[in-house]
């Protein structure tokens, strides 16, 4: 067994056929983590003993006849997803030592399906960033090239999966935070449509954009995990009641209409990235899909609207981190205003502070109408763009980001330039639709490049259909 | 001297809804609970926790809206009111700023000599309560039990023209909400809290004066006192040629004064933002209709109906409709008994006397409308006398029991048979010749003493009216004899 490439599906097959035990699987994970995590920096926390103990219990359960869909499968969770009794620090000093007192719905559902919640992965502090460099705890390296960033904010999850330190991992995607690192590290990343997966117990970044996503080694694994986690949750009022038909495993593209949004194939997209997406489109055409050009006319305004709205929501979501009930509390402060200022000043990193200030400003006085409401109107237009595009095609095929991963420590440019890099991922969050990224080649420098498939919220099986066809082409998807 | 200024005041009344769980989580809440014992990750604002709207609270808020004649919005929404303060677990409060659940409506009050006025409402919206800060010495604690408790905020238009009208609004509101079962309206437990906006305007001028907001008033008498104080304060400023500052003031119940809290320019910017964790709140016409059908008749209407239907005095109807329980009790009993006026008399004089004497609310007493009706019928039919009836009432009120069974098993039936009583009357008169002589000498009260003696001998079972008659007949008989004798004697002396 080569653990680094092992998919959940292959592991389950081994477990069911008794050619692999959960303990062996756990030992493989433990071995990989112990060998590589100090270099890769993917995990922030990993409880070796608990993993081995739970694996032994899973073997016993299987021997007793249990065949839960994820029995004995170890998974990594991003550090902003609560698991009762485990740290949940969001890679921030603000929550250093904070132990979650309750389970998130996703943790509960995965554990209920037999999974072992093995460890917690690094991220940009409070999920704000695109390189995982804003983590207050540690650096995470890109497994494909050690001096490159893994992307972010779910960079630890992407590095753990692509680096062979996890079978699969959970991330969260507010503005590309699952898809961009998946693309940079070379794994499959899925952000289901808004409302498909409960956000209960996932530390909020920008609530109307946040969605739990998965990072996996195959499309089938992603579909399996999403299927287990998705569905209405009485504890999250924004989850959808409707449950779409599950993906039947088909990768037949005959009769499928694939749209290429012109606005996503612009001149500032690096040639290697653009050509990967075009090659993927060509491949889909060969496999029977009808490929057409479509337009998302308000695409250019998306990043600015996202920037305003996400920061505004973030600013109020972050208000609860005040040092009063939990987390970092400044010592020796007498007055409450001082306690807030000192605790937040010491506990939060500069990127977090910058966005809180920006978001607070966007909601202040007349700015609310001038910026926030205006951005809401733009958001509606972006949503309409997608609805109209889906009238003439079943799914969209696009680049994920304009360029492959950059080197550690290099600048993303000005904040405005950095936001432009998110252009192709944030539209999806603005519209609340579902999207997936699948590896499709590498750059000359050996860095992975992914392509993005986008489908309407309840049509995520289309994502799997297209992506599994592309995946077969590059030899993945065991 | 004619008043130069008129008061215009509006109230913002926070009312705690009577529901089992908090507004956005399933925690229960009791006023007396240990601090921080009614809490969960949601109401403590823990990372990752999400609010889920309590449908029962929505139903109560709709009922409040219907009682007050509001328009119920088919779609309303929630917003975050952002401010940093330790009583707000999330450092924002979830409220309905932009699209409240109810709009319009009015509350009827009686002013002066029974004149009825309507005070208009702007809105009623749902919001979560905040935690309670407890300060001791140089240290402060926060009790989050109250954090997240379901409230409605009722906002009146600035149409209140006196402190007494404000009192009338609050009293009427309390009565109405208690009636509808929307809230316990227990002011001591903070079920109802009030902020006041007030300005003075020149008489005969439409334009309103500068508004001052007064916060932190927790009693109805506090509202009255604060408005009176503030009217004097603002009146003095205006009379002295000054102008009133737009500001927020705090009512200090101990000193009986309002104290400046913050000026207009220091007013916080709450940065309201639509709550992304909650979808819009839809209320269908069918739900509104269903909730409306569960509502009781408004007390003011019921008062009028009781007077008309049962012929009871307006005063009695007012007392009886003061509580929905009592009014229901009365109507059920009146229905069973078939005589509302008598039931009303019993309630007004006897039942409410017992409530006062024993300090037991009628809700907590053991008597039901069925027993009261039965008891009244036993007295009216003459089966037992009124005194026995009252004794039984007290016993049933305190310990329970069925009147008919008690009367039968204890042999308490009234003796209404004249033949059975004549012996007792004769014996009483024979044993008390002095009383007979007194009566004959013109002391009419002596007859009452003799009635009492008969009652005593019958161990209270005799029908006192019948005994009275029998004694009168007997005494008259004696007098007739005496008069005859006396006349004879008189004749002799002449």
Account of the protein in words:
The complex is a heterodimer of chains A (478) and B (494). By secondary structure, chain A is of the alpha/beta class. Among the domains of chain A are: 3-237, Amidase signature (AS) domain (Amidase signature (AS) enzymes, Alpha-Beta Complex), CATH 3.90.1300; 300-374, no CATH class. Chain A contains 15 helices and eleven strands. Chain A has an eleven-stranded mixed β-sheet with strand order 1-3-2-4-6-5-10-11-9-7-8, with helices on both faces. In chain A, strand 2 (74-78), helix 4 and strand 3 form a beta-alpha-beta unit. Chain A is globular, with a radius of gyration of 21 Å. The two termini of chain A are 13 Å apart. Chain B is α+β, with helices and mostly antiparallel strands and 494 residues long. Chain B folds into three domains: 5-290, no CATH class; 297-410, no CATH class; 418-493, Arc Repressor Mutant, subunit A, CATH 1.10.10.410. Chain B is built from 15 helices and 17 strands. In chain B, strand 14 and strand 15 (257-263) form a beta hairpin. In chain B, helix 7 (324-337) crosses helix 8 (340-358), helix 12 (418-431) packs across helix 14 (445-457) and helix 13 (433-440) packs antiparallel against helix 14 (445-457). The N and C termini of chain B lie far apart (81 Å). Residues 486-494 of chain B have low confidence and may be disordered. The chains are: A alpha/beta (478), B alpha+beta (494).
SSE arrangement of chain A, N to C: HHEHEHEHEHEEHEHEHHHHEHHEEH
The fraction of residues assigned to DSSP E strands of chain A is 5-15%
Q: What level of helicity do the residues of chain B show?
A: 40-55%
Structural class determined from secondary elements of chain A: alpha/beta
Work out the radius of gyration of chain B. 32 Å
**Beta-strand proportion of chain B:** 15-25%
Gross geometry of chain A: globular
Q: What is the makeup of the main sheet of chain B?
A: 10 strands, mixed
Total strand segments of chain B = 17
Termini separation of chain A: 13 Å
**For the CA atoms, what is the radius of gyration of chain A?**
21 Å
Number of helices of chain A: 15
**Greatest interface by residues involved:** A-B, 45 and 29 residues
Note poorly predicted spans of chain B. 486-494
Order of adjacent strands in the largest pleated sheet of chain A: 1-3-2-4-6-5-10-11-9-7-8
The largest pleated sheet of chain A is described as: 11 strands, mixed
């Amino acid at each position: 067994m080569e653990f680094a490439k092992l998919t959940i599906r292959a592991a389950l097959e081994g477990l069911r056929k008794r050619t692999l035990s959960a303990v062996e699987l756990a030992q493989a994970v433990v071995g990989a983590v112990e060998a590589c995590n100090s270099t890769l920096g993917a995990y922030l926390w990993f409880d070796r003993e608990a993993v081995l103990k739970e694996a032994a219990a899973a073997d016993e359960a299987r021997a007793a006849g249990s065949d839960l869909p994820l029995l004995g499968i170890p998974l990594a969770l991003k550090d902003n997803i609560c698991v009762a009794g485990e740290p949940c620090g969001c890679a921030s000093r603000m929550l250093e030592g904070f132990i979650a007192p309750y389970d998130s719905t996703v943790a509960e559902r995965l554990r209920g399906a037999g999974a072992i919640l093995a460890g917690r992965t690094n991220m940009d502090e409070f999920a704000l960033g695109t390189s995982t460099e804003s983590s207050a705890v540690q650096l995470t390296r890109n497994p494909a090239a050690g001096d490159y960033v893994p992307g972010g904010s779910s960079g630890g999850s992407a590095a753990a999966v692509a680096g062979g330190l996890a079978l699969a991992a959970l991330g969260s995607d507010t503005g590309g935070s699952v898809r961009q690192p998946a693309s940079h590290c070379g794994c499959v990343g899925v952000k289901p449509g808004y409302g498909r997966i409960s956000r209960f117990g996932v530390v909020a970044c920008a609530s109307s954009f946040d969605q739990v996503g998965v990072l996996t080694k195959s499309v089938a694994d992603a579909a399996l995990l999403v299927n287990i986690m998705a569905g209405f949750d009485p504890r999250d009022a924004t989850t959808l009641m409707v449950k779409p038909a599950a993906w039947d495993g088909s990768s037949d593209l005959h009769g499928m209409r694939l749209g290429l949004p012109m606005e996503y194939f612009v001149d500032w997209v690096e040639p290697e990235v653009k050509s990967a997406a075009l090659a993927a489109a060509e491949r889909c055409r060969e496999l029977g899909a009808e490929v057409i050009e479509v337009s998302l006319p308000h695409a250019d305004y998306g990043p600015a609207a996202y920037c305003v709205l996400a920061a505004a929501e973030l600013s109020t979501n972050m208000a609860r981190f005040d040092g009063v009930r939990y987390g970092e509390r400044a010592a020796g402060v007498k007055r409450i205003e001082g306690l807030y200022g000192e605790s937040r000043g010491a506990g939060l990193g500069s990127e977090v502070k910058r966005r809180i200030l920006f978001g607070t400003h966007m909601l202040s006085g007349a700015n609310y109408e001038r910026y926030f409401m205006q951005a809401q109107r733009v958001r509606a237009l972006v949503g309409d763009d997608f609805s109209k595009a889906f009238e003439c095609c079943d799914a969209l095929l696009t680049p994920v980001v304009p360029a492959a991963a950059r080197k550690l420590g290099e600048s993303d440019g000005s904040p405005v330039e950095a936001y432009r890099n998110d252009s192709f991922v944030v539209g999806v969050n603005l519209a609340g639709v579902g999207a997936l990224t699948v590896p499709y080649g590498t750059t000359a420098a050996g860095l992975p490049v992914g392509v993005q498939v986008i489908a309407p919220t309840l049509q995520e099986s289309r994502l799997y259909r297209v992506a599994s066809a592309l995946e077969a082409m590059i030899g993945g998807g065991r | 001297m004619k008043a130069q200024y008129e008061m215009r005041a509006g109230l913002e009344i926070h009312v705690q809804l009577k529901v089992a769980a908090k507004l956005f989580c399933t925690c229960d809440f009791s006023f007396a609970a240990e601090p921080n014992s009614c809490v969960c990750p949601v109401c403590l604002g823990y990372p990752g926790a999400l609010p889920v709207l309590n449908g029962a609270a929505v139903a109560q808020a709709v009922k409040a809206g219907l009682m007050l004649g509001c328009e119920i919005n088919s779609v309303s929404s929630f917003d975050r009111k952002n401010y940093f303060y330790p009583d707000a677990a999330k450092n924002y409060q979830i409220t309905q700023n932009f699209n409240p659940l109810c709009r319009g409506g009015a509350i009827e009050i009686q002013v002066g000599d029974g004149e009825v006025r309507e005070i208009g409402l702007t809105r009623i919206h749902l919001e979560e309560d905040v935690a309670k800060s407890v300060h001791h010495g140089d240290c402060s604690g926060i009790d989050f039990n109250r954090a997240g408790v379901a409230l409605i905020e009722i906002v009146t238009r600035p149409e209140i023209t006196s402190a007494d009208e404000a009192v009338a609004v609050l009293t009427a509101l309390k009565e109405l909400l208690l009636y509808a079962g929307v809230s316990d309206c227990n002011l001591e437990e903070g079920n109802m809290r009030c902020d006041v906006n007030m300005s003075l305007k020149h008489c005969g001028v439409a334009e309103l004066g500068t508004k001052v907001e007064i916060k932190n008033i927790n009693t109805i008498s506090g509202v009255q006192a604060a408005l009176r104080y503030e009217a004097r304060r603002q009146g003095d400023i205006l009379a002295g040629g000054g102008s009133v500052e737009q500001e927020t003031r705090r009512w200090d119940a101990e000193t009986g004064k309002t104290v400046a809290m913050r000026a207009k320019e220091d007013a916080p910017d709450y940065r309201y933002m639509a709550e992304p964790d909650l979808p819009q709140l839809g209320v269908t016409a069918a739900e509104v209709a269903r909730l409306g059908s569960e509502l009781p008749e408004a007390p003011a209407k019921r008062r009028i109906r009781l007077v008309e239907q049962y012929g009871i005095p307006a005063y009695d109807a007012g007392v009886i409709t003061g509580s929905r329980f009592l009014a229901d009790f009365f109507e059920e009993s009146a229905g069973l008994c078939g005589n509302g006026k008598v039931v009303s008399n019993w309630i007004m004089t006897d039942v409410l006397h017992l409530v006062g004497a024993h300090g037991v609310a009628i809700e907590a007493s053991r008597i039901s409308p069925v027993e009261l009706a039965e008891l009244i019928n036993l007295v009216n039919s003459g089966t037992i006398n009124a005194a026995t009836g009252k004794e039984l009432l007290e016993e049933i009120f305190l310990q329970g029991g069925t009147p008919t069974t008690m009367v039968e098993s204890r042999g308490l039936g009234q003796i209404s048979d004249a033949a059975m009583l004549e012996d007792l009357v004769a014996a009483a008169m024979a044993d008390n010749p002095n009383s007979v002589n007194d009566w004959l000498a013109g002391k009419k009260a002596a007859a009452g003493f003799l009635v009492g003696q008969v009652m005593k001998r019958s161990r209270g079972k005799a029908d006192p009216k019948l005994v009275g008659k029998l004694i009168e007949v007997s005494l008259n008989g004696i007098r007739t004899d005496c008069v005859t004798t006396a006349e004879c004697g008189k004749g002799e002396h002449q």
